[in-house]
Amino acid sequence: MIEAKDFIEAARKLGFVRYTGVPCSFLTPFINYVINDNSLEYVSSSNEGDALATTSGSVIGGQRSIVMMQNSGLGNAISPITSLSHVFKIPFLIIVTHRGQPGVKDEPQHELMGKITKDLFDIMEIPSETFPNVKKAIIPALERAEEYMSKEQRPYAFIMSKGTVAPQELDNQLLNNIAKRKNEIHSLFSKKVTSLDRNTVLRRIIKNSPKDKTILIATAGYTGRELFSIEDRDNHIYMVGSMGCASSFGLGLALARPDLKTIVIDGDGAGLMRMGNFSTIGTYAGNNLIHILLDNEVHDSTGAQSTVSKNIDFSMIAKACGYSTIFSGNKIELIDELFLTEKNEGPIFGHLKICSGTIENLPRPNIRPDQILRRMMRHINTSF
Length: 384
What we know:
384 residues; alpha/beta; 2 domains; 18% strand
């Protein structure tokens, strides 16, 4: 058995200062130690996939990060593992607990996952090993992880058995208190049914986002492809998969780089898929994050099947989740207002109704995702 301090302080020497995750009783000592230490940062995500995406964003922003989760939640992280961290080649540490470990008594819901945890990592081409349970094994284990991540620029995993880490009391709660935040919804609706198209909106966003001061993250599907077709800039990231993770990815980047304005361009389908991250953004994000949700009420790139967004008030959800300033409407002027907001205390949200459809002969980015990412990292002067 080790103390949480033994691993966390060894990892700190390698630059790991941010932790994201979803709690598990095996991880309690780790989480408590990080929360207790004001020089470390912990983001409590609503699900494991968002935690992994936030970690990915922090890493490309220059802040080394560790994501922690129970193995039962590994399934929630498969999409961002395979279509975000893998295709963009982003290295970070994963600590996953081994609930249902063969030979160790546990609850029935953990039995199957306990058997296949190591196999899942193998299938996803992520090397893994047992989390060190004696102090002298910690540094060699971290060195192996470092060597792999440096060479391959991909994640490395530790699988933690029950009883590996000694108990650690929690004595410091650091969650932001947003209960008294005075946020209001600004309405910019025309009485006419909107004729606003995505291309027009993206052009206005580009106009308001100077390359040297902003980062634009476009959700998967037509949004990223249209942004690329209009203008391919060094400060752009086009999400090619991990649907719904643009906002959690953007959160990690915004936390790591408070000197830059991070703009997430989301869609209604993606927003609905990972709506839990609205609450995480509302709690942790600063005023350098603008979250724009373009709502055309359909899954446009798969044949325009309807989403349920017609029955959803995204602006009220953003207000309830703690965004500091919220705009909702169907006028292009809404985009300008998002960028004019100066004295907000936290993240800004814009819900803009648009039409479905896209431009003719819509191209796909002709640059590999990892090349796009490294181009952006050079642009903001960060490295792994």
